[in-house]
Design goal:
alpha/beta, Cobalt-precorrin-4 Transmethylase, domain 1, Methyltransferase, Cobalt-precorrin-4 Transmethylase, Domain 2, 5-stranded parallel β-sheet, about 30% helix, elongated
């Protein structure tokens, strides 16, 4: 066969069919395992075989290959370390019109074993012109892309009457690379995506054009959909047989109202799952160079929703405990009421000179970091035009940012 001649790829149904593997080493073992997984009736012929063959449901003949060993076989594998034996197996297969894969000489084979990647009901077989190392590298790259959902692959469309489901997916703090592998995979499989404003929007542009994308808004004071409307929407789409991904910023259960959506699914009898996300409460300070805990500085931290004025009715946070308690306070959704929040903490006992960092658009290329103190942070934030989304860090750990930056600069200079 000429080197430039194309070959015909095909997938074989081997369940219950006889296959002969000649060879007893590791290459033969790998091929035998794949054949067993495919349901083939495998016979192994070799004078010496690896001990692992004893664990497989195969027939083993511990002897040299004989010409009649291929009788009745549908497929043969020549996988010995002796080219003469492999050539004899290939010749015997040719006479019997049996496809034969030679492990030692792809050019002399009539069949080839590809590098295989499997993901659910998808199987990808890779050949690379007889170069197994190259095929393996390609297979690993494809397997990784299938696993993390970056390969544009969607499962078959659901038919009417089939059950749908809802996945509450945490999209992470902003950088689209910080969504979990499980979340990215579900997003790639989705029929409907209901996205919040703070979800990683860059990922939406990578979706199949057939995917329905619903902008739920959910930015402060500007909701495209109410929570009741979102609950009704995800339930309705799931009942229509769709895989619905509710894509949120951060983590679904950290001020994301994911619990309400989970309850809506349970009450409607809709299957759901929760995929945790990297919460901005910890990730955004980390990206800004601020660890929320540090030995010798603080052992604890609290995460607080500060979307309400602390003095307003309905504000449930215990500001007295927060002023005297945790070493680090992480305030989410605090920009609108930063002045009143800072004043409340000082009034209840936090020192006015406590360090504060305000991190806008954390983990994204637009990230800005403002450092100040409790007594000055509101005025400083207003002067610098800080806008949501932003994470506010209150505590002595803020001082570590400057020290870490100084040490990092010294390492770079060295």
């Amino acid at each position: 066969m000429g080197a430039t001649m194309s070959r015909y790829p095909i997938e074989l149904e081997l369940h219950g069919r006889a296959v002969v593997v000649v060879g007893g080493g590791q290459v033969a073992l790998r091929r035998t395992r794949g054949l067993v997984e495919a349901g083939a009736r495998v016979t192994v012929v070799a004078p010496d075989v690896a001990g692992e063959f004893d664990e497989l449901p195969v027939t083993v003949h511990r002897r040299r290959y004989r010409d009649g060993d291929l009788d009745g076989a549908w497929l043969a594998h020549a996988a010995t370390d002796d080219p003469a034996v492999n050539a004899a197996v290939a010749a015997g297969a040719e006479r019997r019109r049996i496809w034969c894969a030679r492990a030692d000489d792809a050019a002399a084979s009539s069949a080839w074993t590809p590098a295989v990647a499997r993901h659910g009901e998808v199987t990808v077989a890779v050949t690379a012109g007889g170069d197994p190392a190259r095929a393996s590298r390609l297979r690993e790259a494809i397997a990784g892309a299938l696993a993390d959902g970056s390969l544009p692959l969607r499962r078959r469309r659901k038919r009417a009457g089939q059950a749908g489901s809802v996945a509450l997916v945490g999209g992470g703090p902003g950088d689209p690379g910080l969504i979990t592998v499980a979340g990215r995979r579900l997003l790639a499989d989705a029929d409907v995506v209901v996205a919040d404003k703070l979800a990683p929007r860059e990922l939406l542009s990578q979706l199949d054009p057939e995917v329905e994308v619903v902008d739920a808004g959910k930015s402060p004071h500007a909701h495209n959909l109410s929570q009741d409307q979102i609950n009704a929407l995800i339930v309705e789409r799931a009942r229509a047989g769709k895989l619905v991904v509710r894509l949120k910023g951060g983590d679904p259960y950290v001020f994301g109202r994911g619990g309400e959506e989970a309850l809506a699914c349970v009450r409607a009898g809709v299957p759901f799952q929760v995929v945790p996300g990297v919460t901005s409460a910890v990730a955004v300070p980390a990206y800004a160079g601020i660890p929320v805990t540090h030995r010798g500085v603080t052992q604890d931290f609290a995460v607080v929703s500060a979307h309400l004025d602390p003095t307003a009715p309905g504000a449930m946070a215990d500001w007295d405990a927060l002023a005297h308690g945790p070493g680090t306070l992480i305030l989410l959704m605090a920009v609108a009421h930063l002045e009143s929040v800072a004043a409340e903490l000082v009034k209840r006992g936090r020192p006015a000179r406590t360090p504060v960092a305000v991190i806008q658009d954390g983990t994204t290329p637009r990230q800005r970091v403002l450092t100040s103190t409790l007594e000055r942070v509101a005025a400083d934030a207003a002067r610098h035009g800080v806008e949501p989304p932003a994470v506010v860090v209150v505590g002595d750990v803020v001082r570590l940012r400057a020290e870490l930056a100084r040490l990092r600069d010294q390492l770079v200079a060295a």
